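User: My instructor asked us to take a sequence, write out its structure as tokens, and then describe one feature of it. I'm not sure where to start. Here is the sequence I was given:
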Amino acid sequence: MLLIGNGRVITRDAANPYLEQGAVLIDGDTIVEVGDEAALKAANPGADYVDAHGGVIMPGLVNCHTHIYSGLARGLAIKGCDPHNFLENLEQQWWNIDRHLTLDGTRACAYATVLDSIRDGVTCIFDHHASFKEIPGSLFAIKDVCAELGMRACLCYEVSDRDGVEKRDQGIKENADFARWCAKEDSSMIAAMFGGHATFTLSDETMDLMAEANDGLTGFHIHVSEGMNDVYDSLENHYGVRPVERLLNHGLLGPKTMLGHCIHVTPAEMDIVKETGTWLVNNPESNMGNAVGCSPVLEFFRRGIPVCLGTDAYTNDMLESLKVFVAIQRHNAGMPNVAWGEAMTMLFQNNPAMGEKYFGRTLGKLAPGAAADVAVFDYNVFTPFSDENVDGHMLFGMMGKNCRTTVINGRVVYKDREFVDVDEAAINAWTLEQSKLLWGDLNDRQY
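Assistant: Let's start with the prediction itself. The structure tokens for your sequence are:
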């Protein structure tokens, strides 16, 4: 047994939303009770104890869209990279990086991303990977890192035509092989989606091959209408059909499919998304950083379309993404009283719901029977704090780096700001060597 106590407990469980002096009791990988700390301590004297040091005990956070392959890009400047639009940014930076990623480089990216995510209280990630230098085995390499560090992860590979038929076919096979492996393992820790880059780098033939290789195993994870080039390509080269309709025509939509970004979508496309039960994922900081626009998330909500929240690897901090989402939506709408409810629904309800589709466990809730994914945040209270206003404290007072302790699937992976049973210094040293190799290849010099 594991008991997490000495903190304010935010459960996200409507039946028992808040405990001023509460605790969470865990047996194996499952929460068995949430209640008064004194009572739980008395009833379970032999339980291992994790001290929250007066902080906030809450469900671990879910990131519904990230890119592990960008993990070694921090501080990187690529010679000659000076993009003036979104497509140039892809060509000069991100596609350039992934074309130089070896399997070891992919592993290093995974270490960097997962460690930072855990440090920010994130207990589950949905990753969309690309490493066009070495595709075969890349998802399995990421899976091994996630298993070693204890991260709950849903993985896919970014199929694209941009580097030719051989690389396209390798990407399709990597997705299919990994999805079959996950189906056989039936794990609550590692799952698969079937990845595709974006419709402007996916031919009709490729979409059909993706659907055939997937054969109903899982849902698709695809970028859609992130930049206007995606829209222009679809209209000009596919008989006036827009991106969402193309995906519909090739059988890639549905309740387990998640479309990233969806900034430049029409009402008709929204109707298709709604009718097929397809989910969306918004990445506000990335959209701002890439200067591609603001996704009409408020309209998605008005139409009853489920929207999740991701980071697109711009950060690994979901609370940071939460703050930026509210700001950009209010700025775009010209109204200071919108986006609050949508933001909280995305992060604290929809993200866990998407996770539940793939892991078969109740996520995002501290309640009996839920998966034991818990984050403890340091937070000094100097204004009233309760279930009535916790979202305001999250939005304006807390950040990922407030995280003190992270528990995933009942395993304490990060305790009192130190990783447990992980040699972080050794991992960082090895990751640094891999980043030097990658940067050297990109800039034709030594680091």
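For the description part of your assignment, you could build on this observation: The mean pLDDT is 97. Try explaining in your own words what that tells you about the chain.
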